[in-house]
Specification:
The chain has no helices and eleven strands. With 121 residues, the chain is mostly beta strands. The chain is elongated, with a radius of gyration of 14 Å. The strands form two sheets. Strands 2, 4, 5, 6, 9, 10 and 11 form a seven-stranded mixed sheet that branches. It starts with a strand and ends with a strand. 0% of the residues lie in helices and 59% in strands.
Amino acid sequence: QVQLVESGGGLVQAGGSLRLSCSASGSILSIDDMRWYRQAPGKQRELVAGISSSGNTNYADSVKGRFTISRDNAKNMVYLQMNSLKPEDTAVYYCNADLFPAYARQSYDYWGQGTQVTVSS
């Protein structure tokens, strides 16, 4: 059973930092793109950052210069370092991975359960 599990969320004051982690576990052949999404109440889920298997990254304009996505391919981990946090960053953050389960014939998108990030003003 392939699972993604996020950790590192919490309550932080504006201007502070948090580091989110996502661990992919189970029988996995390979992981392609890994991404972080977030969803605030009443808003659409949005892509925050993505990283390819080779390390190419992309970011939403709203987080450029403040957030950094990285991955550890050997550990099947992806991270999101969040600095200079703002109240508008408050959301549930979800890890997403495009991966091949072991012995699968195609790739699938997997999602974590999400971790709450709350930034107080």
